[in-house]
Amino acid sequence: MEPAEQLDAVKHYTIQKLGMDHTGHGLDHIRRVVKMTKRLAKDEQVDEFIATAAAYLHDTIDEKLVMSVKEAQDELREFLRKIDFTQNQIHAVMAIITQMSFADTLDGERPTLSPEGQVVQDADWLDAIGGIGIVRAIYFGGKHGERIYDPEMAPRENMTRDDYRDLRHETIINHFYEKLLKIKPMLNTKAAQQIAAHRQQVMLDFLDEFKDEWASIR
Ligand code: ADP
Ligand code: NI
């Protein structure tokens, strides 16, 4: 199979797996991550084929979205083999998508990603901040029954992976302090950090306005 045909097959695999998602991991998210990945991959001169494949596939094995992570990984490896990915290419893609999540940075050391992985991680994380990030956090929090805000509830420091997944102790506003505002300095590439600067300010302005309005109602 030609590379373009392989990427087309990868795209269709993702559509089949995530087409019905309503938690903010839908196809619009994937499309943005793929576009940003291609842009960053050119700047950083990394292997665009591996980066693009990983960008498409990065959420198809997410623990929040599949019944069994192991089965989802096995199925994906088998699919990639069928469309003529080499063993090295399969390893490269799997190493990226199993270690690039924000949750993967919480327990112990942050995993070291390949240059391609760093680009895909930046593209994914950029989509969690700024105006789109604000809407995705609200969409996700609403779907999972989070309250919007509780001034008595302090944002958690030094969250573990389990804390991050424990949505009973979360509000949408706390999610900004616990994750979204922390992303900018964690980005791998200069280009992503530059894009993040404006988005960070948008989130800070939003939080100021939200809290001003909240405090003014008594
Ligand atoms: P990653 O993309 O690093 O794997 P997630 O899959 O956990 O991170 O997050 C996907 C999207 O859902 C992001 O926009 C993120 O900010 C949002 N999100 C994750 N957890 C929460 C939460 N507890 N409350 C609100 N939004 C959340
Ligand atoms: Ni994602």
Q: What would CATH call the architecture? A: Orthogonal Bundle
- Coarse shape: globular
For the report, how would you describe the main beta sheet? Answer: none
> In whole angstroms, how far apart are the ends?
65 Å
Topology as H/E string?
HHHHHHHHHHH
Give the DSSP E fraction (strand runs of 2 or more residues).
under 5%
Helix % is 55-70%
Summed up, the helix count is 11
Q: Which CATH C-level class is it?
A: Mainly Alpha
Radius of gyration (CA) equals 18 Å
Bound molecules: adenosine-5'-diphosphate, nickel (II) ion
Q: Provide the CATH topology.
A: Hypothetical protein af1432
Structural class: mainly alpha
Q: Into how many domains do the coordinates divide?
A: 1
What low-confidence regions span 5 or more consecutive residues with pLDDT below 50? none
Averaged pLDDT? 94
Number of strands: 0
Task: Write a structural description.
- The protein is mostly helical and 218 residues long.
- The protein has one domain: Hypothetical protein af1432.
- 63% of the residues lie in helices and 0% in strands.
- Helix 2 packs across helix 6 and helix 5 (87-97) packs parallel to helix 6.
- The longest helix is centred in the C-terminal third of the chain and has 27 residues, at 190-216.
- The model has no long low-confidence stretch (mean pLDDT 94).
- Nickel (II) ion binds next to helix 2.
- Residues 22-138 form the HD/PDEase domain.
